[in-house]
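lol ok so funny story. i was supposed to be doing the assay writeup but got distracted and ended up predicting the structure for this chain instead. priorities right. anyway since i did it might as well share w the group, maybe its usefull for someone
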Amino acid sequence: MKAKDIFCLVVRLLGLVFLYQGLAGVPLAVASFCPIFPHFVWRNLFPGFIMVAWPLLIACWLVRGAPWLVRQAYPGD
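and the output, tada:
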């Protein structure tokens, strides 16, 4: 394997870490938005969305290979 292939593999593994972080935050976000009581806590909707969506967006970008990042790391290839 060349150095570029190893770098791409590391980037995709880092994407899996972000995917895990995003999915691990889903139960906490749902629990803060929909507590045991029969009403919604609307002020917790946006922070819960950010807590889940931000890592999932980064994970999607990294798992796809982060083409911009790879081009910056290896401009000649």
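The helical segments are 3-24, 26-33, 45-63, 67-73. The chain has a mean pLDDT of 88.
back to the writeup now i swear
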